[in-house]
Amino acid sequence: MKPHNCYICKKANYNPYVTIKDSLNISSFTIAECECGFYFVNPKPSEKELNKYYSTDDYLPHSKGKGILFLLYRTVQKISFYNKFLLLRNLIKGNITHLDYGGGDGRFSSYVNSKKKATSSFYDPYYKKSSNSDFKKNKYNIITLWHVLEHAYDLDILFENIEKSLEERGKLVVAVPNFDSLERNIYKENWAAYDLPRHLYHFNNISLDKLLRSKGYKIIYKKRMLFDTFYISILSSMKISNISVIKSLFVALFISIKVIIKGPEFSSSLLYVCEKEK
Ligand SMILES: [Zn+2]
């Protein structure tokens, strides 16, 4: 494990913020708070150490199984795919050429491919079966990073790949868990989006803005992802034995109403649509 400078301001003006158990319950990791407002796992585990946390089925939570939670997960996923595709359709006039960078097992990519006037590829360095580096041979008019930035071992490499693959005037859609989300305060150390050490960076509205602008992207608009509130609430409540799924759904409903009133800066996830600055 190596201490490292803040990824955004490049300085070492940070202090430990919180130490949380990892997702496998074998060790703990510390999140540092930088003076510039960025939160990141520090010291950072080696890539070899990190790979341990991707070798379990847990990497794609609830992608297999049965029972009410699995059904709920699949239903929410269907609605979320539909909403994500609507976003793509609204952004691209004409044929969609889409890359789902970090797209896990490629499920969303298949969904896009099933639609008219849309083709999609996916690439995920952590999901072995889908390590298709052929994506580099093509250019895309829209690239999505659904909950990917927080996992990237090297953000510079990720942005270099995006830069090479995105058409001029192409759109980049970024979604990450929001460190300022209201449910982090409710679930505390059980907040599912800590997901240490797989989530190496913890963004809020300010730090995500700074990162994207530093990489030369202008933000066209920001959007709420209210379904993520339900997803994160259910996952978080599963870590606490005395809270039921029904209660977590009520918590999610309460948070969703607050987010609608207070604005996307407080939602479970931040969703930004960007374009390369000319
Ligand atoms: Zn910093």
What is the distance, rounded to the nearest whole angstrom, between the alpha carbons of the first and last residues? Answer: 39 Å
The portion of residues forming beta strands comes to 15-25%
As an assembly, this protein is single chain
User: Ions, cofactors, ligands: which are bound?
Assistant: zinc ion
Number of strands: 10
What are the defining features of this structure?
278 residues, alpha/beta, Rossmann fold, six-stranded mixed β-sheet, four-stranded antiparallel β-sheet, binds zinc ion
Molecular structure report:
With 278 residues, this protein is α/β, with parallel strands linked by helices. The chain has a single domain, classed as Vaccinia Virus protein VP39 (Rossmann fold), CATH 3.40.50. Helices cover 33% and strands 24% of the residues. It has a six-stranded mixed sheet, sandwiched between helices. A four-stranded antiparallel sheet has the order 1-2-3-8, with no helix packed on it. A hairpin with a 6-residue loop joins strand 1 and strand 2. The longest helix has 24 residues. It is globular, with a radius of gyration of 18 Å. The protein starts with 13 loop residues before the first strand and ends with a strand. The model has no long low-confidence stretch (mean pLDDT 86). Zinc ion binds next to loops.
